[in-house]
From TrEMBL:
Coiled-coil intervals, chain numbering: none
Organism superkingdom: Bacteria
Enzyme class: isomerase
Species name: Sporobacter termitidis DSM 10068
Record lineage: Bacteria, Bacillati, Bacillota, Clostridia, Eubacteriales
Domain (UvrD-like helicase C-terminal): residue spans on this chain: 496-777
Protein name in the entry: DNA 3'-5' helicase
Length: 1191
């Protein structure tokens, strides 16, 4: 098996090349594990300078992979020993395999830290906390930290600003999420504090004059230039095409020429400064003359116009405003990074007290032990470790992080004796901080092995695939050579990266690839491509297709040179995400009696056994919960039927379900038995740790036996044991007892965190349903790639705060006056970069999915209206597809269909002319299928008809009585529970203005308002409503005693502006002469000399409804209002309402009558509150400088 003749020349190069760092780019199915094992064996088998297997450090991605690799090395050594039984060296290697350093990066770091605990500040017996335990600690540490910060918020204005700008809603949940997410992102850096300092330095844009001088501006401009050049090429081709159509050229030629001139200017300006580019961003599309037809050519121009309009929006703001935005967000971002670093320190102290480290600590602490961060050089410890190993071998190198790379460099003699193997096209773990650019940088910079000088890094490409049929490989090549490029996918897919067939068992005449487009126009459904109906239709189709292949006995290789009929275990259904969908596929298969397995797909908390147990524990903790209680009663543990539950509900319809259960237990033994058991559980729960109590519940309810008897009982029992394990961790983490355990579980469920990773390996004769990520490293004879119309997840680029390793922090700026958030220059750039990386990762996920198939790949895409989507795609289909087109792809279906539409056999899908590809490989089986009936409707038809039962006359009469019932208090239901004084006159604008003014003042008391950006307001003057609000604010906060003359009034307005009671525009909008006119008036002088004065007096009173509504009866409602001014004079009250309405001497009487109900309401309220009679109700109209009395 390991003979030289069994390896390809490329594999041999990877096995035998020495003399420097070696990067092996091993495509899917190319035998990379065999190569790694053989390379090791060549070292230790005695053919070369003999050494031991313990002289090598071998790093794999998972513990399962490490165990498998160790077994393969031992198997190979055993085979060699069978040929050379007297070889003592080989016997020694076989014995040493179990001592060899073969494991994960975390295992290696753990060993380093235990050996050098004193250097890392740890005790040698430290324990590694799992993710759920770490999540508990983080939550508690952050809660305590924020509590301390809130206590000193008055002395830390930066923290107050952070809370104001990055919190949302009624609590600080969003701020907590931002802190934890930022902390997690910082863990991808070897020196988080240094990175944070670099970001703060980058945010200091004070010395800059143009946005292009920033890393964000330059990134956006470079990106925009690529798009501008692309559309310039499109428009040039359009102009060339017009020469064949003189009438179209006559109508559109000048317009297209003007657009091309504008594109030239824009593209050129993008190479210079931001403001120059901004001046050229609005490319002109002059109106063309009318000409009939040529819709395809017109549409190209329309697409270009729309794309450039979207691009111009990026350059809407000038550099001055953008740089000012960056300066404005810097204090909040500074405080955030300080808070994150403070959290890091507090979290580290909490772990140290408990003797814990988390997985991130393992890498960071090991990196500090092995690397001098000041110089970047390996430490003496690293040099000592590196001397132990002849070579460092790293599997799945495409998934390493920056910190891991630092560790590898430290122990590999400066990167000289390291063997790295992986496939960057299968790097799909960026969300776990994997950085494929590390692999890509070496892939691009290293020379081919045969060209490299001694000591230089070299690369070997393994492109021969021994897994899949040639037809599958050709399909993969066809798709990826047309969609993967430097700009879309982070690398080009050329002939060097092609997959070449290595199998020699012959090719089946059946197509290796099937593409099924399902059109749901034949049934009523939602437009959403991710609706449950779509999933059900697709699941039903796939189940039917599998049943068809099983029934026809589709042949697959039997591994002995022949074939056999396909079996259930040969199929795999791969989904981008199994959440809420896998069960529908399982049901569709079950309807056809096809067994299915969901390895790790259901989720721990969502599994039946865990869900039932948690419901029972929740009811023990608090029985007044209807849904958990009903779930427990209905579960296999207690077995109440729906009819029995209905009887319980009927026992007491007015109580909650627990109350009804107590009532039913008076006559029902089954209910009484349940309540007795519940009472016994509740009695002892406070006195037992959570884990022991759960064991007690298991014993008393036979939970393990009941769940073990269900399908998949072994896995269910295992999950219940894991629940006990989680309870043990909970107790250790400080969440004591049942209540603490349930609190922890709820937090984990709210965050969507799973306490255990799935390690279940799919097995058995059942169809596998799993996520694409779970399928990595596996292979199946027949693969169905399903749910391809699922939209790409762009939530990461929409998070409140964005972070990128190279571009740094992308924050929003918050307008504190209006609570409006808008993007900054940095945020636009980081969001764009994250979106690009997300699309590249999704492309690699598709590559992983397509390369899992050995014999047949079936791609299924389901659309609510397939023709609509196919028409749109047909207009963009060309080989290769431009990155600027692909960046608008909604999901995987687009990435497959765009190149598929260029294939000759895709005629049934093309709805517009498409240039055909010539080199497509083996033909696909391409179909478009119209779905005419939903699965649920078909199942209903298959059910036997229910017998007709005649209704009894008394039941009909009772039903009619119930349906004819009239609610006797319908008038009361129409009366509002709350009434405002201004509502009495039929409008709420003044009340809302007053409320808004108060809120604005409260905000202004603590901080100066941020300027609203010009692109939001696009005006300079205040509206009449805003001017009225400004005048009311002035009258509310101005000091009456300091308004004796015009200059004093002006001084008061300046004071209100400086104290942020009024904004600059509001202060300018208030006419000081109007204020002085009031104070100089007889009414103003009475106010100034009043015995007592009430200003902006808010009140809330309970009043009888019949005082304001004819049918109000004796009900009470809440009456609220704000009295502008009320003064006491001679033992009586006088109520004043200030009005800024436009009024004339002719309309003043009408306006007074309009406001009369409002003033009457104010008068009644003040009489009740103060206890004095109201002698006059007055309205002061600022427009006339006059007062009117309400009769």
């Amino acid at each position: 098996m390991s003979g030289i003749s069994e390896f390809t020349p490329r594999q041999l190069a990877a096995i035998e090349t020495r003399g420097g760092a070696l990067l092996v780019s091993a495509a899917a199915g190319s035998g990379k594990t065999r190569v790694l094992v053989e390379r090791l064996l060549r070292y230790v088998s005695g053919r070369e300078d003999s050494c031991d297997v313990t002289d090598f450090l071998i790093i794999t991605y998972t513990r399962a992979a490490a165990s498998e690799l160790r077994s393969r090395i031992l198997d190979e050594l055993s085979e060699k020993l069978a040929l050379e039984p007297d070889n003592r060296h080989l016997r020694r290697q076989a014995a040493l395999v179990y001592e060899a350093s073969i494991g994960t990066i975390h295992g290696f770091c753990t060993d380093i830290l235990r050996e050098n605990a004193h250097l890392a500040g740890l005790t040698p017996d430290f324990r590694v906390a799992d993710e759920s335990e770490a999540a508990i600690m983080k939550d508690k540490v952050l809660e305590d930290l924020l509590d301390r910060r809130y206590e000193t918020v008055a002395e830390t204005p930066g923290f107050a600003l952070l809370v104001d700008t990055m919190s949302a809603g009624r609590d600080d949940k969003r701020l907590k999420e931002i802190v934890l997410e930022t902390y997690a992102k910082l863990q991808s850096h070897a020196a988080p504090q240094k990175w944070a300092e670099e970001q703060l330095e980058a945010l200091d844009t004070g010395a800059l004059r143009d946005a292009s001088e920033t890393v964000w501006g330059r990134f956006l401009m470079d990106d925009a230039r690529k798009k501008a050049l692309y559309w310039r090429g499109v428009m040039r081709r359009l102009r060339s095409e017009t020469t064949a159509h003189p009438d179209f050229e006559k109508a559109y030629g000048d317009s297209i020429g003007a657009t091309l001139d504008g594109l030239e200017l824009f593209a050129s300006a993008l190479s210079r400064t931001w403001d120059e580019a901004r001046g050229c961003a609005n490319v002109d599309f002059p109106r063309a003359k009318n000409v009939k037809g040529y819709e395809d050519l017109k549409e190209i121009r329309t697409k270009c116009r729309d794309a450039l309009k979207k691009l111009a929006a990026v350059f809407e703001c000038a550099s001055e405003g953008l740089l000012e935005d960056m300066a404005a967000v810097r204090p909040a971002v500074t405080e955030l990074l300080k808070l994150v670093l403070e959290f890091d320190k507090a979290y580290a102290e909490a772990k140290k007290k408990r003797g814990l480290v988390d997985f991130s600590d393992l890498e960071h602490l090991a990196a500090r032990v092995l690397t001098d961060f000041e110089t970047g050089a390996p430490t003496e410890t690293a040099l000592a470790v590196s001397r132990r190993y002849r070579e460092i071998m790293v599997d799945e190198y495409q998934d390493v992080s920056r910190v891991q790379e630092l560790i590898f460099n430290a122990v590999s003699r400066g990167g000289e004796n390291i063997f790295m193997v992986g496939d960057v096209k299968q790097s799909i773990y960026r969300f776990r901080l994997a950085d494929p650019t590390i692999f890509l940088a070496k892939y691009k910079s290293y020379k081919d092995a045969e060209e490299a000088e001694p000591g230089e890094g070299r690369r070997v490409l393994l492109s021969t695939n021994f897994r899949s049929r040639a037809g599958v490989l050709e399909a993969v090549n066809h798709v990826f050579k047309n969609v993967m490029s430097e700009d879309f996918g982070e690398m080009a897919y050329t002939e060097r990266e092609f997959l070449y067939p290595g199998r020699t068992d012959g090719e089946s005449p059946e197509p290796a690839v099937e593409l099924d487009v399902l059109d749901m126009r034949g049934i009523e459904t939602e437009e959403d491509e991710e609706s449950p109906e779509k999933t059900a239709v697709e699941a039903d189709f796939i189940a039917a297709r599998i049943a068809e292949m099983l029934q026809s006995g589709t042949p697959v290789p039997d591994g002995k040179g022949g074939t056999r009929p396909v079996a259930c275990g040969d199929f795999a259904i791969l989904l981008r995400s199994v959440k809420d969908k896998a069960a529908l596929y399982e049901k569709a298969l079950a309807d056809r009696d096809i067994p299915a397995a969901l390895p790790g797909g259901e989720g721990f908390f969502a599994s039946l056994e865990v869900s039932v147990t948690l419901s029972l524990l929740g009811v023990i903790d608090n029985p007044m919960q209807d849904i958990p209680l009903i779930a427990v009663l209905r579960s296999p543990v207690y077995g109440f039927t729906p009819d029995e539950l209905a009887v319980i509900r009927a026992a007491d319809k007015s109580a909650d379900f627990y109350g009804a259960l107590v009532k039913a237990a008076e006559t029902n033994d089954k209910c009484r038995a349940f309540l007795d058991a519940l009472a016994s559980f509740r009695l002892i729960a406070p006195d037992m740790p959570a884990d022991r109590f759960i064991w007690h519940v298991f014993n008393k309810t036979d939970m393990l036996a009941v769940m073990g008897a269900l399908r998949g009982g072994g896995g269910r029992r295992s999950n219940l044991m894991r629940l006990v394990e989680l309870a043990v961790r909970c107790e250790a983490g400080g969440y004591k007892g049942l209540f603490g355990f349930m609190t922890l579980v709820r937090k984990l469920m709210e965050k969507g965190e799973e306490p255990f990773g799935s390690s279940e390996t799919p097995s058995g004769d059942a169809v596998k349903i799993m996520s694409i990520h779970k399928s990595k490293g596996l292979e199946f004879p027949v693969v169905f790639l399903a749910d391809t119309t699922k939209r790409f997840n762009k939530k990461d680029a929409a998070a409140p705060l964005l972070i990128h390793a190279a571009l740094g922090v992308g924050a929003k700026r918050t307008d504190l006056m209006r609570r409006i958030e808008y993007p900054t220059l940095a945020r636009m750039a980081v969001a764009r970069k994250l979106n690009q990386e997300m699309l590249s990762e999704e492309l690699r996920v598709l590559y992983v999915a397509m390369t899992r198939a050995r014999e047949k790949l079936v791609v299924v895409s389901t659309f609510a209206d397939a023709d609509k989507e196919l028409l749109k795609l047909s207009k963009d289909a060309v080989a290769p597809v431009a990155p600027q087109v692909l960046e608008n792809a909604a999901g995987m279906a687009s990435l497959v269909l765009l190149p598929a539409l260029t294939r000759p056999e895709a005629e049934c899908l093309r709805l517009a002319p498409v240039p055909l590809s010539t080199d497509c490989g083996a033909p696909w089986d391409i179909r478009k299928i119209v779905i005419t009936e939903a699965p649920a409707a078909r199942r209903r038809k298959a059910l036997p008809a229910e017998p007709h039962i005649a209704a009894r006359a008394e039941d009909v009469a009772a039903l009619r009585r119930n349906l004819d019932y009239q609610y006797p208090y319908i008038k009361a239901a129409e009366i509002p529970s709350k009434l405002t004084a201004t509502g009495l006159k039929g409008r709420f604008a003044d009340f809302e203005a007053a409320e808004e003014a108060a809120q604005l003042h409260e905000a202004a008391r603590h901080r100066p308002p941020a300027e609203r950006p010009a692109f939001i307001t696009r005006r300079t003057a205040l509206t009449p409503s805003e001017r009225g609000t400004a005048l009311h604010l002035a009258m509310q906060f101005i000091d009456y005693d300091k308004c004796g003359d015009l200059e004093s009034v002006r001084e008061e307005l300046r004071r209100l502006r400086e104290k942020s009671y009024l904004s600059a525009k509001q202060a300018d909008a208030v006419d000081p002469a109007k204020l002085l006119a009031f104070f100089d008036s007889p009414l103003g002088k009475r106010v100034m000399g009043a015995d007592r004065l009430y200003r902006e007096f808010k009140f809330s009173l309970l009043v009888r409804a019949d005082a304001y509504f004819a049918d109000g009866g004796d009900d009470e409602l809440l009456f609220q209002g704000v009295v502008d001014c009320c003064f006491e004079e001679g033992g009586a009250l006088h109520v004043i309402d200030f009005k800024t309405d436009h009024v004339t001497p002719e309309t003043v009487a009408e306006k007074t009558r309009l406001y009369a109900p409002q003033l009457t309401a104010y008068a009644r309220a003040m009489e009740r509150i103060v206890g004095l009679p109201v002698r006059s109700r007055l309205i002061y109209f600022f427009a006339l400088d006059a007062v009117a009395e309400v009769e």
